[in-house]
Model the fold of this input.
Amino acid sequence: MKKLEIDFGGEKSSVYIGDGLSDSASELFDLKRKVLVVTDRGVPAEYAKKVAEQCADATVAVIPGGESSKTPETAVDLCRRMMNAGFSRRDAVVAVGGGVPGDIAGLAAALYMRGTDFYNIPTTVLSQVDSSIGGKTGVNLDGIKNMIGAFKQPRAVIVDPLLTRTLPKRLAAEGLAEALKMSVTFDADLFSVFENGDPMRRLGEIIERSLGIKADVVSRDEKENGLRRVLNFGHTAGHAIESLGLGYYHGECVALGMTAVCTGELKGRLLRALKNTGLPASAAFDREAALAAMSHDKKSAGDGRVSVIFSDAPGTWREERLGPDGLRRLVYDNFSEAGNTAPGGNSR
Ligand SMILES: NC(=O)c1ccc[n+]([C@@H]2O[C@H](COP(=O)([O-])OP(=O)(O)OC[C@H]3O[C@@H](n4cnc5c(N)ncnc54)[C@H](O)[C@@H]3O)[C@@H](O)[C@H]2O)c1
Done:
């Protein structure tokens, strides 16, 4: 077992990484109390059941799942479940699932009686390499992503790579986009894993290294005032593409977003890495609609300028603040108009 300790100004969050660790949740989390176990319909039911069996008094909440369930109503519903089951502030919430139940359960834990303990057992590649640590929780408002949220650090996280074995291939690949993102900006050696072979064969190593990077970044900048903005690499265009509802998964949108912010010879190398990972490298869509979506970007300082991270070489990054013209160039220079290059799958 590998353990990462993240310190948020004295508040500690422990991350345990290892195959099969979710079987020992009660040894790593304090489950001797009322526990709301939050999962969704697409997560194999035995994962939440196994965790619930290790709790003194568990209530299992199965939310529908998918981005459409990331609403304020779902978070309030979880709070209501806790209230009706007599939870106090000393009880706990455990998320068992991907980024969607993780973000909602984390928010409910932040809100219920002004905050209960929160634990996370991520089950998708994306949530294992990225979303389960760092403390960002949230739901969408009127379709705009993560407009309502809170910083809520999990007391502990169990990252059990074996849980991702039941994921369809495309879902596993899209999760790796966030790890690829971290490699481009912070870790040239990790980037070479993506560039020179099938990254899926080295999943355990990728998860561990990505979590190490994210832990380092978020402990130095918990509230996204500086370094943490680098984790938004690829997300400005990515979120805009995602909001168009073309059928791409979140990680696929980040992959597409990265193609717009890798410059010079790195762009060709990124395209190779995307191909190795099974991620899309080009897209056509309504570019004006994408630009309109970018105006909602929370990284906008309100003056119409948006902070965008670029990379010129693996392991490096630089920040630019783009105004409307810069954003327009970013979109028009890197993507084509409309067409039908959507991957055919339905949006989750
Ligand atoms: N909080 C953060 O820092 C942060 C960072 C990145 C992304 N996010 C958020 O994460 C969300 C996306 O997360 P995600 O990609 O994990 O999606 P998800 O939680 O929707 O999971 C994807 C699908 O996989 C299914 N699933 C989950 N685990 C499974 C397993 N082990 N086997 C089989 N199926 C499984 C789910 O039921 C769902 O249908 C987005 O809402 C995004 O905004 C949050």
In short: The CA atoms of residues 18 and 166 lie 17 Å apart. Residues 169-337 form a domain with the Dehydroquinate synthase-like, alpha domain fold (CATH 1.20.1090.10). Residues 40, 42-44, 65-67, 70, 97-101, 103, 123-124, 126-127, 130-131, 134, 136, 163-164, 166-167, 171, 175, 250, 348 surround nicotinamide-adenine-dinucleotide (CB under 6 Å). The chain is about 40% helix and 20% strand.
